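re: ur question from the group chat, yeah i did fold both. here u go
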Amino acid sequence: MSDLEKIKQLRNSTGAGFKDCNSALKESAGDLEKAVEILRVKGISKASKKMSREAKEGVIALTESENKTSVLEVNCETDFVAKNEDFINFVKELSLINNLVDSDQEKLKKSLMKNKNTVEDNLVTMIAKIGEKITLGRAKTLQHNDSKNYSYLHTVVKDNLSKLAVIVSLSSNAESEKMDLFGKQLSMHIAASNPLSVDVNGISKHILEKEQELITEELKNSGKPEDIAKKISSGKMNKFKEENSLMTQQWVMEPKKKVTDIIKEMDLKDLKIVDFYRIKIGD
């Protein structure tokens, strides 16, 4: 095999550049296996130098199968790389694996990809090849018994990759086209309104305490009597809960009504919002 053919084979198997392949082959005296190992070590070195940089761009990948839907955030440094074909293909394969392992990040990293290398190893290779920090971000799988998942992608980069993704799980004893339409519309509503939970009881205690602190600080120097300040504080907290609970939010497609009003009007037996997840790149 000629040196040029070896370089070509090495490039195809590792994704490294021409100069790096040529240098590795010289260092290994033409031994392809040794050259691959040399490139791997160099790739790890390059990758480790890049890992101190910020990676706030990237894509959200969504994969569905039966009643299971998963999202995975993969970050990079620039939007230019987020649209790179190699990066896109890499993330698409990651998304499929992520759905299989139910968004378990440790299992994902150790999983084998099509080239028989682990996700962890391929990530190092991709960083070295593309020249940017790439990280696995948040991941979530929704799978509930007797429920149906709906999804929405906003600012689509390509196919199942976007900048924002929503999954929502609905259950009803009377599934219908009406429910399917509502599921799609509700996904869009969640994308636009960004609720914290399905209902008031689901908002975390920590978030409520932080909001109360902010309101108290705001009213501290208002000069209002204590009893009036308490009433204002209570009103502001109630408004915060209402605006951040999905069921009590104004329906984006008909703002005079709330989500709970829309559900009542649909008159579907036992229709229930079981769960939802919203993820936006960089948030």
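okk and heres the other one u asked abt
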Amino acid sequence: MPSGRIVLLNGPSSAGKTTLSQAVARRLSTPWLMLPVDLFHQVRTRPDADLTDRQWHDVFHRTRAAYHRALVGAASSGMDVLADHVLSEPWRLDDLLRLTVGHDVLLVHVSCSPKELRRRERARGDRVAGAAVTQQRLVFQHGDCDLTVDTTYGPDEPTAAVLDLIRNPPGERAFDRLRARRVARA
């Protein structure tokens, strides 16, 4: 069975990754799975559990690790996957690079102006103020991607750019370059 593709939208919270995924999905001509990382946090039980900060950190780590494996599992079954994630910790990218060997992954950086990130955080009301701006400095530290889009003014232009990337992918993928750099450093 041929492997499906993974289009990974990486950006800070409130940058519009899920909105962009939904806009792209509406214009795709074939079925894709939309798997945002937030879905895994939503389906995890017991958000009211009485755990220490360290224990919650471990739960969040395992949740994200499970998400990575679900992406690869879906692609391995032949499904194309639209994913969105916040690669704000180096282990997240390292884990994905290790797990996706042999898979077709397109990495899209989703950015947004700091002013708009702050506005979206306030409007959502369920985010820590200032977290998105802080994350924006962290999520792109690895430097490489197949496409960068800016959602400050909405999803229309970014949607067209992502669809064009899917239809006309580059010969060499950012994930392959990032993986090769990590191997060279080891």
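fwiw on the second one: The domain at 5-185 is CATH 3.40.50.300 (Rossmann fold). The chain has one domain: 5-185. idk if thats what u expected
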